[in-house]
Amino acid sequence: MRKQLLFTLTIAFLQSSITFAQSNTREKxxxxxxxxxxxxxxxxxxxxxxxxxxxxxxxxxxxxxxxxQFLVFETEKYYPxxxxxxxxxxxKVRFNNYKECTLTWKDxxxxxxxxxxxxxxxxxxxxxxxxxxxxxxxxxENKLLGGKTLVVKEIVYKDNKVQKVSAYYNKTKKPCIGSLxxxxxxxxEIAIKITTYESCxxxxxxxxxxxxFAIKENNTAKTTYEYEDEDELSRSNEYTYNEHDKIDKQISxxxxxxxxxxxxxxxxKLFRRVETSTVSDEFHSKMVSVLFDLPEQxxxxxxxxxxxxxxxxxxEGNLIYEKKGFQYRELINGIWSDWKYTIQ
Length: 344
Prior knowledge:
Elements lengths: L1 H42 L8 E7 L6 E8 L4 E10 L2 E7 L3 E8 L2 E6 L8 E9 L2 E8 L8 E9 L2 E10 L5 E11 L2 E9 L7 E13 L2 E8 L7 E7 L5 E8 L2 E10 L2 E11 L2 E9 L18 E5 L5 E6 L2 E6 L2 E2 L3 E2 L3
Antiparallel strand pairs: 1-2, 2-3, 3-4, 4-5, 5-6, 6-7, 7-8, 8-9, 9-10, 10-11, 11-12, 12-13, 13-14, 14-15, 15-16, 16-17, 17-18, 18-19, 19-20, 20-21, 21-22, 22-23, 22-24
């Protein structure tokens, strides 16, 4: 009886230890991914800076979190951030599959992240404070920009959301604000007001940009950009998705310019992209990118529907330009030119 009881208690203890270790591991990965995401926001500007959390990247065998996907509203594409484990510790993170940064820990907090000691990009000292407005995480560049300017980004984080990002530029002993990002969250929408200031001396507002990210609903997502400066044209991007959750169509509008982009897939891979542009509803251009040859070639179809290359069509839909590899030719006055070499 005693042996059975001891065995039962031992198993319960081991199970409890495993559960605690798994929970601790998950919390550590989540904290690293949070700081990594905020590092990207601190290092980026404008609409490209925001990353919206999506699915975790999980090891299918151990169940351990190895990273997370983040949605970039500007492009409607996913940006992965991976954590790199060394035993039970996370020592590095990798941004978008190529930018690797080293982490320094102290008392359970990340206090430094660095890609390269000679670069100001993704190279910060990190500090933390908290008040009624939420947690403020401060990113201070380890390397001075241009050898003179110290850039400090303060990010207010509350309820698992970014609330505000303030950028300060310390050219003298007194820091001055360079830009302010203010976030507003609504059902199926994230709005960001970006205020940029003229200089430390005048503190005048240089520009105000309002960005609205409509989160995907009914296979449609939309991003709009509005500016208080009358000389800056407002613009928008609207995306439509197919049944496989891939972009099927994109409509981009900037002032009187409209571009319709359609996407075609083969074997679930992007195969063909067609961009048709108009100005004041009048035809401007049509460009076709075919990313690879179709395995089964149908000679009755135009080459810009089946062969790898870049093509241009006129208003009537006739081919007027084609580029294959490093060679191109174009239709001039109804006659095709010789093939010429290009470095692009």
